[in-house]
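Reopening this ticket.

The earlier resolution said the output was attached, but the attachment link was broken on my side. Pasting everything inline this time so it's all in one place.
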Amino acid sequence: MKVPYCSPKIGGVRVCAGPLFEYIAAFLEREKALGYQPESTALLTHLQLISRLNLWLARMRCPLQDLNEEVVERFLKQARKDRNYHRAGAPTALRRLLQLLREVGAIPPADRPVPDNPAARMVDEYRRFLAKECGLKPLTIGHYARHITGFLSERFGTGRLRLSQLAVRDVTAFVQRQAHGHGRGHALSVVTGLRSFLRFARYRGYIETDLGSALPRVANWKLAGLPKDLPQGAAQQVLAHCDQTTATGRRNYAILLLLARLGLRGGEVVDVRLEDIDWRRGEITVRSKKGSAGVRFPLPVEVGKAIAGYLEAGRPRCSCRNVFVRLYAPYQPLAHSGVVSKIVRLALERAGVESTRKGAHTFRHTLATDLLRKGASLEEIGRVLRHKSPDTTTIYAKVEIEALRQLALPWAGGGR
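Inline output:
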């Protein structure tokens, strides 16, 4: 089947008169809004890909309303056989195209994929229960669902699910296997997720026994450990090794300063928005949760200069309101706090600083211990770190002997 080409070109790419023709210009504008430059190779590649999909749909006589993820995957499977196929970014660009088409009503909403075995269907039902009836965040739901998928797969495989046959030995053995070779945090997550699922199963009538109460407890004594802070002077050493001559370096330097000088959590750095900074008053609003009113803090001059330098000569111009964004198109906020932890880890390696912990919280702990050594009270440190309970701050007393002396009770026998 021959398909006539239309003119003029769209974004420098010839487009045939296929099902996607009238939407390609809108796709082009959306890509530009995400930061792709009109003359960039990436944008040209995306337009060529969409044009190729448009031609393929026309030749296959596939109506636009039938376009979905399955059809796109069939197209990509065939396109990968061509040596001129550009793999980088292709699936992502096509996902954005499908999103655009659904927003304008050109194609139906996405159908939820049907799980292909009883265990997967049960996990899917559990996911929906956590989201709709418990109101948990997607990240938490993902953690729980991953543990439950492993548990059900080990116990029942892909066969019929007989939850009524579960016994105490099944759940305790699974916890023991998962805890072996992992840290305390992983074991706690497994037990919490499994207990949540067993309560859900009992609530739905799939089991009658309260197996959740039989789960073993993970030793997690409060205030048992020590804060994992950096050695004295190490934080400044890390900051001194930041390359502030590049856009990436300016962004990462500003992020590290927010961690080191204000003790922000990784997620709080990700959520900082342009309107959260009051330049006239020299203040910044820190939100522990999205949508919260937040707490205003003085913005140190050093931190303000670093953020301003990044905004002026590092941050790409885009419609995103988050302060810290990707440096390459599409310009979007940093995905999650794990990106901040990766920035910290790379900065520590570049500065040659050894640390048992290499996440964003390392600088938070370091700030607290430095404040304590300089004479700040535990109450003041708790306010800086935005702790809800004073007990959370008490752990920092363990790093300072003099602070411990103030908490110690006199011995009835006298002496030292």
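Reporter confirms the inline version is readable. Residues 5-103 form one domain. The chain has three domains: 5-103, 118-214, 234-403.
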